[in-house]
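Reviewers asked in the last cycle whether our approach scales beyond single polypeptides. To address this, we selected a multi-component target totalling 892 residues and predicted its structure end to end. The input consisted of the following lines:
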Amino acid sequence: MATALAPTNRVAMADLKGKVDPDWCPGCGDFGVLSAVQKALVELQIPNHNVVTISGIGCSSNFPGFINTYGMHTLHGRALAVATGVKLANHDLTVLVTGGDGDGFGIGGNHFVHTMRRNVDLLYIVMDNQIYGLTTGQTSPTSRLGMKTKSMPFGNIEAPVNPISLALAAGATFVARGFSGEQKHLTELIKQGIQHKGFSFLDVFSPCVTYNHDNTYQWFRPRVKKLEDDSVYDPANWMAAMEKSLLWGEEIPIGKFFERTDVPSLHEAEPVLNTGSLVSSDTQIPLDISRSFVDELM
Amino acid sequence: MKKTFAIGIGGAAGQGVATPGDIFAKIFSRRGLHLNAYNAYQSIIRGGHTFLTIRTGPERVSNMGDRVDLLIPLNQDAMDRHLGLLTAGAACIYNSDTIKPGIAAEDVAMCPLPVSKLADITRNKVAQNTLAVGAGLSMMGIGFQGLEEVLNEQFRKKGETVVGENIGIARTGYDYATANFKPFAWPLPMMGTRYAVLSGNTAMAMGGAAAGVKFYCAYPMSPSTGVLHWMAAHARKANIMVRQVEDEIGVVNMAIGAAHAGVRSMCATSGGGFALMSEGLGLSAMMETPVVVIDCQRAGPSTGVPTKTEQGDLWQMLGAAFGDYPRALAAPLDIGDCFKIIPEIFNIADRFQCPGIVLCDLLLSEGRLSVDPKDLDFAPVINRGELITSASPGRNGDGAYKRYKITESGISPRAIPGVPGHTHTAASDEHDEDGVLISDEFTNPAKRRAMMEKRMRKVAGIEAAVPPPVLWGRHDGDVTLIGWGSTKGVIEEACEILTEQGISANQLQIRWLVPLHGDAILDILNSSRHTIIVENNYSGQFARYLRSETSFVPDGHIRKYDGEPFMPHHIVESVKEQLAGNSRLSVPAHEILV
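The resulting structure, written as C-alpha cells, was:
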C-alpha cells in the first residue's frame, strides 16, 4: 500500500499535526517525544496514511490523538497485542506503539515480553516517567526503591524493573534508550527504530513534572551519557549491551544498546504472507482447496 | 420410532477408544448412514475412563439416544460400569482373557473373544480393539470390504506389513463372530450416499475459512482447542494467519488489531478465557471494530469440569464488558449449524461494526455428526458492510472524513489504515464524530449522548437483519418445549417420542440470543398450552433472560447440570411428570457412570 510521493506531496511537519493540541502538563517530557516522532517521520518521508500509532491508556497513551496518522487508542496495557494484529494483517504499514511505563511494564508486562520474543516489526516507544501520572501519582514498575508516592507513602520497597535488560533478555532485536531533553539524539533513535526490521524497543526518559520530583530533567541531564560517544562500544555485542544496561547512578547510558539484523521478523517468518499482506489477499478460498478440506472428512 | 443402532466403547484414556470409534464412523458414513458421536471423557491423558457413544441410522441422528445396542468394554472397569445399560437385543463384545463378564439383563448376548488365541498380542497391543471392530461389523451385517478399506487408509503410513497385520486381525475377529455370535436382528442398511463426519470445532473453523477469516488466534483451552488445531493445520492452504498467543487478553486484542486493519478476524475460547476477553469486547464495541469470538462452554464456575458440557455462560455473554453496546450473540443448533453460523455472524458483525459472539458448548464442539457435504458451503454470502479500502474521488484527502459520523442507522463508513485522506484515531475513550476524545479535556454531555445513541441505533438494524424464531411441530400441541443452542437435537427427538406416546409436543429452539425477538417469542408462547424450558444449567439462565426481556414465565423447567448432555428419555419422563402436575422443575439424573 506504500505510495510513491510526488515532490509536491512531500511529508511536512504540518501534515502530522493532530486534530487537537496535547493536554499534557506544561513541561511534560512527552512533548519532546511527540515532536521527535513527527520529525523522524518527516525525515524518513513516510506518508501519514501509512502509519498507525497505537497506544494503551495513560498520559503518554493519549499520544495518537496528538499526531495525524491512523491511530488506535486501545485498552490499558494492550497496545502491543493490538499492534501485533495490525502488523500481521497489513505488514505494509509502519506501526508505532506509544505508551508509559505503567501501561507497558505493569499491566502490559506479559504482552511486552511476548511481543519481543516474536520479533514483531514495530517501534515501541515507552515514555518512562517512573510514576503513574493520570491516576495522580502512584508507584510504577520503574519507580526507584524508596520513592514516596500516594500508593507507597512510606517509600517503595519493591525493586524496579530494568526495561533495557528485560528487553535484551526477551530477545528484542533493537534496544535503545533516549531522553526527552535530547531532541536530536532521540529523533535519530526513532528513525533507526522505524527502519529496523523487527521489534524495536525505545525506552525514553520523559520526566513527569507534576508527580515525580526525584527523576527530573535536572536529575537526568548530568547523568545521561550517549553510547554513540563511546568509540569502542559495539551495539552488535549482546553481552556488552547487557552489561551497559545494568549501569544506573552517576552514569546512565542512553543511545542504541543493541541491534541485530539477522532474525526475521514475525511477518517475514510466516509463509502465509509470502504472497502479500492479508488485507490484500483474496477472501474466497479456491474451490479445489475447499473441496480438499471436505474430502478429509469423508 | 426412528430406527437407530448405538455402539458404546469404554476404556481408559490411552487405551485406544478413539480409533475403533473413528473406524466405525467412517464405515457408517460411507454407507450413507447418519451418525452422532459423543465422547464422555476426563481431564486425564492416560488412565481414567472414557465412554464413546456412536449412534447411527438411515435418518438424521441428532443425539446420543437412550439405548446402547453394542457395548465394547476395553477393560474391566468399562464392563462393570456399563453392562447394566444393555437391554434385550443388545450385545457385549469383550476380551475374555482379561475381562470377567458381569451379570447381564435377559436376552443380552455376551460375546467373549479369546483374544490371545486369535491374535499375537505380544506384537499388537491393541489387537483386542481390532478384533472387536471386526466382530461387531460382522454382527451388524456389514461386509468386510469397508473395514479393509478404512484400515488401509489408517495404517498406510506405517507400511504394508502393519496394514496387512491389522487387516488380518480384523478378519479373524470378523470370521470368529460370524461362526460364533448371533447377528443383530436389524442389519445396518446401505444407503448409496456418503456423508462428511466432523466435530463442531472443525465445523466452526471451516465456517470461518468459508467466511473469509484471514486472522485467527487463540490460547489453548478445552473444549475450544479443536478450532485452533484445524486452523493451524490448514492455515497455509487456506491462507489464514494463525497465532497462538500468551493469554486470552492478548488473543482478543490481537484479533481486534487485525480486524481494525481490515481483515475478518476470529478467536475461540471457553468460559475462563472469555472472562479475560471481556474488556476487549468493549473495545471492539467502542472502536466499532468487528470481531467474532467463539465461546465453547464447559461446566463452570472457575476451572470447573474442563471435559464436561454445560450451557452456563449465557449471562457472561449478556454481561460481557461494562456499559451498553450493541452485540450479536448466536448459539448454533447442531454441528452443521456450527459451520453455517460463522459466515452469518460475520456479516452481522461487519455490517454493524460490533462484536459477534458464538455461544457453543462441549457437546457440539467435541461431538461429531454426519453432515451432507453440500451443506459445507465455501461460497456463502459475504457482506463486509460499509468499508472504505481505497481512496475514491470526492472522499480523498479533503479532511472531511469522520470515522464516527452520526447517521440514522448508526453505521459510520469505516476506513482502514493505509487509505490516503482518511486518517483518524479510533479510541476506547468516548469520542466525537471525528475521533477526538470527549473523555478528557473536551467532555460534553450532548456529544456523549449523541454518540451513545448513534451506536445503540445499530441494535434496531441488527434485529431487522436476523430472523425471528419459529415454532416447529403442530401449533396446537399439548406441550411446547423451549430450548436454545445445542439441545435442539435431543428436544426434537423427545418431541417425536412424546407425540408417538400420545402427547403432542412442539418445539421452540432459540438460535439468536441477541437480538432475541421477544415479541415474536411471546406471540408463539402465549398461544401454547403448556410451556417448559429445557436447558443444561442450574439456574435456568435462559428462562431468566426470557423473563427479563418479555416478562414471560413458563409452566415448568427441565434442567441438568451434572456435566453430561440430556438423553431423550430424560426430557420425555420429565415432561410427563410435569404434565401430571407432579413437578415444575425436573432435574433428571444421568444414569451412565462417566
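The CA atoms of residues 275 and 316 of chain B lie 8 Å apart. We regard this as preliminary and will revisit it once experimental data from Aim 1 are available.
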